[in-house]
Amino acid sequence: MNVLILGANGFMGNALSEKILATTDWHVYGMDLSTNKIQGLLPNARFHFVEGDISIHREWVEYHVKKCDVILPLVAIATPASYVRDPLGVFELDFEENLRVIRLCQRYKKRLLFPSTSEVYGMCRDAEFSEETSNFVYGPIHKSRWIYACSKQLLDRVIAAMGQTQGLRFTCFRPFNWIGPKLDDIYAPKEGSSRVVTQFIVSLLDGEPIRVVDGGHQRRCYTWIEDGIDGLMRIIRGDDEACNGEIFNLGNPDNECSVRELADKLAQLYAKSYRHLPGYREPRIEEVSATEFYGKGYEDIMTRTPSIAKARTALGWNPRVSLDEALARTLDHFVRERQEIEGATTGSSPSNDTLRKVSSAH
Ligand code: UDP
Fold first, then answer.
1. 8 Å CB contact between 142 and 297
2. How many separate domains does the chain show?
3. Closest ligand 1 atom, residue 304 Cα
4. pTM, two decimal places
5. pLDDT score for 155
6. In terms of Cα–Cα distance, which of 107, 98, 103, 118 is closest to 178?
7. Within a domain: 333
8. 256-283 pLDDT, tens per residue?
9. Does residue 155 sit within a domain?
10. Between 20 and 30 A from 230 (CA), which of 54, 74, 114, 254?
11. How many Å apart are CA 121 and CA 202, to the nearest integer?
């Protein structure tokens, strides 16, 4: 089977490419702007990667939609700070460029696996969000945060309509706060454009205070990346009856916690496991208002818990990795990555002693 992954160097794209290459005999065709997360995959003869921009290299994209069996357009801006700062950029990439790819899937009769988002539910008050019954709740236009949710929601509707009236074969999936290695670029938090777990970890590594927005009462269900990828593999392998025309929430409801609890957990983990690292500073947590942190166009989501009954039944999917384990593994990855970068810039590799402390931490 040939799988096309647009955004193969992204958080999901690199993890999915790695899983496919390691566990199947399929070929992966990929495009992305850069290659920092897929260095280890590039030598693989079944990984056919081209560095490029889907909004520019449209002929390459069309040719490969034609060539491949399953299409995953994973290119998107997916960090809330960007929805506020660059709402049009979010619309142009996340909506317009992806619509182009969706239309190609329709034209060439290819199976589409589309990343919707848990964000589509917006400020829905349901205790658990259901793919079948929950309403989508967004704020007014001047709250530009919602442009991402609206863009994704409309694409979900376009895809469903193409399925209904033109026979498009598709499955949409909604990730709920997936976390793990390579979640965001380690330097992205400097620009305020990474997700909360990366933001907190990099603050710890920099000896800066963790900044909790509006008291940190917001709750999320953090899901280990490999659990999410397991869900995707089940969808790719899944038959038409279970998957065609369906939408699946992919999140771990057991891993729900508030942003404040998340800050405490990461601070404790860091203090317990890494206090012997050079440059270590005691974790500090401070509060910041949403307006100060994100700007006036921001509005928060207080709870976001998936119902995963559908994925359990149709796919046999069960997320397994606990929040504590997922955080420990993610923190471990970022500590190592930082050490490798520092080793490279000082011309020396991290001392064996330091690495031993890091690798034995969990
Ligand atoms: N948040 C925070 N401090 C940060 C970054 C984010 O308190 O440094 C909060 C943010 O307001 C939101 C939650 O953490 O309530 C999750 O943010 P994330 O960027 O991961 O995206 P979301 O889950 O909202 O899509």
1. yes
2. 1
3. 23
4. 0.94
5. 98
6. 118
7. no
8. 999 999 999 999 999 999 999 988 999 9
9. yes
10. 54
11. 29
